Amino acid sequence: LKDFDVVHEKIMHFIVVRKDLQYFQHIHPEFDKAAGEFSIPVIFVADGQYRMFADFTPSTNQMGPDGERLPVTISQDINVGNLANYKPQSIGSTERTKTFGGYSITMTPSSEPLASQNDFGISFEIKKDGKPVTDLQKYLGALGHTVVLREGDLQFIHAHPTQSPDAPQNGKVIFMITFPEAGNYKLFSQFQHEGKITTSDFAVGVIEGVKSAPGDTIMEGMQHQ
């Protein structure tokens, strides 16, 4: 394949994460169209088993029901370093307010408990020095990006905010997420402010749910899996 659509300013979004959901990276390979090859240097900071996701949209793919061309996500696992040194860490606490690089971020679901097969609005309230951040900059064409991974099998969701990046801001960014199955998940969300990218991570538990009826969704949004 040599023809790809530009999606959120890039033709490939490349996600690297250790399989215990540590050391998350969201990077963007260079594309040599003549050779049909993507390439990028990757730095692994610790030993272990990693999964790499390539997220792209071939220009020949069919259109989805939302009028957007259907994306493709493929993955591959690799071993890095000495696996004898690899001691998987826990997914972490489910606390809802954390500090990342000087920013206080509070993650709030639109309703609880979180259940699989249903649409949830996930709000991120971002503060700096105790005040809401109302001047986020566009990051890859949006107010933020969220990658959701399930503990164990690393089921993958890439979601974008429901708000237009050009709309007035109130200090909160909302994503629409549908968790496919019950389990523990980690949400990696990235925002840009004052020229700096901040990555947050939050762990959530999801119970087994029943798919909601049409029209019962909590809010409109977009994601792909």
Fold and architecture overview:
There is one protein chain. By secondary structure, the chain is mainly β. Helices cover 0% and strands 44% of the residues. The chain is built from no helices and 16 strands. The strands form four sheets. Strands 7, 8, 9, 10 and 13 form a five-stranded antiparallel beta sheet that branches. Strands 15-14-11-12-16 form a five-stranded antiparallel beta sheet, with no helix packed on it. A four-stranded antiparallel beta sheet has the order 2-1-5-6, with no helix packed on it. A hairpin with a 2-residue loop joins strand 9 and strand 10 (131-132). The protein is globular, with a radius of gyration of 18 Å. The two termini are 21 Å apart.
- Give the ordered list of helices and strands: EEEEEEEEEEEEEEEE
Q: In terms of quaternary structure, what is this?
A: single chain
Number of strands: 16
Shape: globular
What class do helices, strands and sheet pairing give?
Answer: mainly beta
Mean pLDDT: 92
Strand content: 35-45%
Low-confidence stretches: 215-225
Q: Give the helix tally.
A: 0
**Which sheet architecture does the biggest sheet show?**
5 strands, antiparallel
Helix content: under 10%
